Amino acid sequence: MKLVGLILILLTLVPRGGVAEEPVILTVSGNILWQGQPHERLDYTLKELQAMPQRVITTSHPWGQQPHTYRGPDLVALMSSLFGHARIKTLYLEALNGYSISVDWQKLAPFQPVLAWQENGRVMSRREKGPLWLVLPFDQVPELQQADFLHFMTWQLRQIKVHTEPM
User: Fold this and answer.
1) Cβ neighbours around 81 below 10 Å, total
2) What is the predicted pLDDT for the residue at 16?
3) What is the total count of domains within the chain?
4) How far is CA 29 from CA 54, 96, 108, 118, in A?
5) Model confidence over 26-45: pLDDT tens digits?
6) Residue 94 · residue 140 · CB < 8 Å
7) Does any domain span residue 13?
8) Dist CA 88 CA 30 (whole Å)
9) Of 38, 48, 95, 133, which one is least surrounded by beta carbons within 10 A?
């Protein structure tokens, strides 16, 4: 009887046609206005994030011995596409490992953060701080070497909750 129940559960996880959907790796929530339509949240797969305009940052940081090259969507461009002219106040970053932090957007945005999905040409796994890591050009700007900015570099990033000021 338990085996039948397990099989039924597994069958509900596979969509019709027998092809499993790509998993969601990032959820963005807030007062989103995307393509003229309001949304409370949008979910993204790795393929969807890879299809966005990409930026590359090569930087060293305290978690590695030498500079690494990271590729991913420009977070400023993503926020602009989702929130338009709304004034973003705070991002709440949540990671798969339970880590979360509140980030002042006005403090973070000038440094052009990247939602890195690739490190040194390889897709990052959970074990390698993936599937997403908010990366800053840490070694290129002395101001970024403060503790606050180190904490903003959230790995295993899973969710971004965006709070905007009323217009």
Assistant:
1) 16
2) 39
3) 1
4) 21, 16, 18, 23
5) 999 999 998 889 999 999 99
6) no
7) no
8) 10
9) 38
> Is the torsion defined by CA of 45, 35, 163, 53 positive or negative?
positive
Q: Is 40 helix (H, G, I), strand (E, B) or coil?
A: strand
Domain membership flag for residue 4: no
Give the Cα separation of 113 and 135 in Å (integer).
6
The residue count of the chain comes to 167
Phi then psi for 144, rounded to 5 degrees?
-70, -15
Cα gap 73→51, rounded to integer Å: 9
Q: CB of 45 within 8 A of CB of 20?
A: no
- In a domain? residue 3: no
Find the CATH number of the domain harbouring 108: 3.90.420.10
Q: How many CA atoms lie within 13 A of 23 on its CB side?
A: 4
Which domain range does residue 36 map to?
22-164
Distance (Å, whole) CA 52 – CA 122 = 18
* Tokens read off for 61: 């940081």
Helices assigned H by DSSP within 84-119: 105-108
